[in-house]
Amino acid sequence: MTRALESWLRVEQTAFCPGCGHGILLGAVVRACDELGLDRRRLLFVSGIGCAAWIPSPHIAADSLHTLHGRAVAYATGAKLVQPEMTTLVVSGDGDLSSIGGNHLIHAARRDIDLTVICGNNQIYGMTGGQTASTTPVGALSATDPRGNRYRPFDLCAVVMAAGARYAARWPVTRPRPLTDSIKRGIRTPGFAFIEAISPCPTQFGRRNRYEDLTRLYDAVDERCLPREEALRMSPEQIEGRYLVGEYD
Ligand SMILES: Cc1ncc(C[n+]2csc(CCOP(=O)(O)OP(=O)(O)O)c2C)c(N)n1
Ligand SMILES: [Mg+2]
Asked: CA-CA 20 to 30 A from 122: which of 50, 98, 136, 167?
């Protein structure tokens, strides 16, 4: 990591589990801010509660509001209204943003609040022990679904676009360059932007779904990705269970 990038970090050591995809997402967020040359005195991070919510606070050396579970977008909306000149980034988890916080998310998109919301989607409630989330794939095992999840997961990018977002993008953390570029594009977008990072969780998702090692878990995530443009020419059965990656605008 270069000295310029290091200057964005507040801590020397992370508390993330070994192999957590959120660490790669942290790198992408910091790179995006650095490459855009953002003035960190005019930058505010907002997060809720969960492992992903630790990405800005304590890791990033900029102001951050570490708020209540599910309420990151609500706090960010208030902060943006009071200080519209601040670049305001929400970084939080799939559970935080789309389960308990789902209503705040869709209404911020509908109102086109000028936020960039970055979701670390590990398909599970990681921090609290691996419960099923609104993003857990059908059939996946979790603490609350030991025989497999029955319900279809949200397509978060489609949800926010339907609600009125200006820009959305989905990438796995195994593809850090397009992920970073989409975060940059989200920040530059005036109005509501949403970036979903598919982020492997070895400790809860990987262990419960019997991935033998990190390589297999990361390969499995990457192999499930399908470019959105290709998916448009395929049947619903063919794209079942795949992550449609790319930009939505
Ligand atoms: C009102 C409220 N309900 C539930 C909790 C417990 N809780 C904290 S984080 C969390 C889920 C976090 O999952 P996610 O947002 O996906 O983040 P991850 O840890 O997976 O990165 C839950 C249920 C809480 N802190 N407050
Ligand atoms: Mg999660």
From this structure: 167
